[in-house]
Amino acid sequence: MSLKGKVALVTGAASGIGRQAALTLAQKGAAVVIADLNQSAADAVATQIIEAGGKAMGVVMDVTDEAAVNAGVDQTVKQFGSIDILVANAGIQIVHPVEDFPYAEWKKVVSIHLDGSFLTTKAALKHMYAAGRGGSIIYMGSVHSHEASRLKSAYVAAKHGILGLARVVAKEGGPKGVRANVVCPGFVRTPLVEKQIPEQAAAFNISEAEVIKNIMLKDTVDGEFTTTEDVANVIAFLAGFESNALTGQSVVVSHGWSMH
Ligand code: NAD
């Protein structure tokens, strides 16, 4: 499916899954805005796309800051003429048992995932509705949108919440041709996951190899990590699927870790 003539904004696109999503959407022909806290890394991804012959721009955006989100979305429309695809991907992980979870850290995790998804959706929808050419909103869920793991209360609660937001946006946006879907990856070896391996080894008093084999990949069908390319290809498919037949759904990309 070609995305020629489409404009995409990807949050958290300076690293990991978001970065690969930006590269893949650009390869399919979309102009891509790389929105991230990390300006220099965002600009580096944009430069890589431009050097390969694509259109891209880096913008600094904290997805929990309404003014910054609105400014980044407005800048996207000003630069490229529209916003057709939003990938609400920015995210972090903080792990603690519930009884010790610092409230400030709970709020930080929930806010980046849920407030960030809400604020970017709100800003993008206004332009999508005004332009009257529909759109595709893709949320970064997780196997943790459907399953639970110890120590991840804030993340699991937020990722479950994203399903609810996506379903409401699917219902409200449907009559205007705006689709909303959630991509739910299993473990992908990005900086977010690399950080968790020693943390979980310490928390459960096991080796790092055991964390990978017995926790992260235990429930997969083949003991394999999901890759950033796997996830980006599903994002590109959802971005290019032009009818409301596929909306309000979650697509789990996890080597069978979760089969919801
Ligand atoms: P990553 O750490 O490689 O990248 C996350 C990016 O988000 C970073 O560039 C960071 O600067 C940016 N970011 C963080 N807070 C931000 C904010 N407030 N505003 C804007 N940008 C911000 O992580 P990743 O593994 O690529 O994760 C991306 C998304 O995928 C997250 O939503 C994560 O929950 C989800 N996910 C990851 C995995 C996995 O195994 N890696 C699995 C399922 C879901």
UniProtKB/TrEMBL annotation:
GO molecular function: 3-hydroxybutyrate dehydrogenase activity
Domain of life: Bacteria
Coiled-coil segments on the chain, per record: none
Biological process per Gene Ontology, one example term: monocarboxylic acid metabolic process
InterPro entries (alphabetical): 3-OHbutyrate_DH, NAD(P)-bd_dom_sf, Sc_DH/Rdtase_CS, SDR, SDR_fam
Gene3D superfamilies the record matches: NAD(P)-binding Rossmann-like Domain (3.40.50.720)
PROSITE patterns on file: ADH_SHORT
Pfam family of the protein (one): adh_short
UniProt xrefs under SUPFAM superfamilies: NAD(P)-binding Rossmann-fold domains
PANTHER family named among the record's database cross-references: 3-OXOACYL-(ACYL-CARRIER-PROTEIN) REDUCTASE (PTHR42879), 3-OXOACYL-[ACYL-CARRIER-PROTEIN] REDUCTASE FABG (PTHR42879:SF2)
Family: Belongs to the short-chain dehydrogenases/reductases (SDR) family.
NCBIfam families: PHB_DH (TIGR01963), PRK12429.1 (NF009093), PRK13394.1 (NF009931)
Annotated protein name in UniProt: 3-hydroxybutyrate dehydrogenase
Biological source species: Zwartia hollandica
Organism ancestry: Bacteria, Pseudomonadati, Pseudomonadota, Betaproteobacteria, Burkholderiales
